[in-house]
């Protein structure tokens, strides 16, 4: 199962999404017998890569936020101690 195939949400995979949708339009019956399977596999791999990049970016951002929070807590603790 794949996420909704909206091009604006998956810019990395836009080309494969278009090919996959075209395959489903061109082969309305054969799609049930594996005509578009190769494109589906490519699409799944692309989604995994895209998700890994997003996950990495989110992790980096969370590390920055965590560092800022710790610095803020340290600063406020020092102010309270004075």
UniProtKB/TrEMBL annotation:
It holds the Pfam family Cmc1. Keywords: Coiled coil, Disulfide bond, Mitochondrion. It comes from the Eukaryota. This is COX assembly mitochondrial protein. Residues 55-82 form a coiled coil. Belongs to the CMC family. It is found in: Mitochondrion. GO terms for cellular component: mitochondrion. It comes from Macleaya cordata. Transmembrane segments: none annotated.
């Amino acid at each position: 199962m794949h996420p909704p195939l909206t091009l604006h949400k998956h810019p990395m995979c836009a080309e494969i999404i278009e090919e996959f949708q075209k395959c489903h339009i061109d082969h309305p019956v054969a799609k049930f017998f594996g005509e578009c399977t190769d494109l589906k596999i490519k699409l799944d791999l692309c989604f995994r890569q895209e998700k890994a990049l997003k996950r990495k970016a989110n992790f980096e951002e969370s590390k920055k936020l965590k560092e800022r929070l710790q610095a803020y807590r340290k600063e406020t603790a020092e102010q309270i101690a004075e």
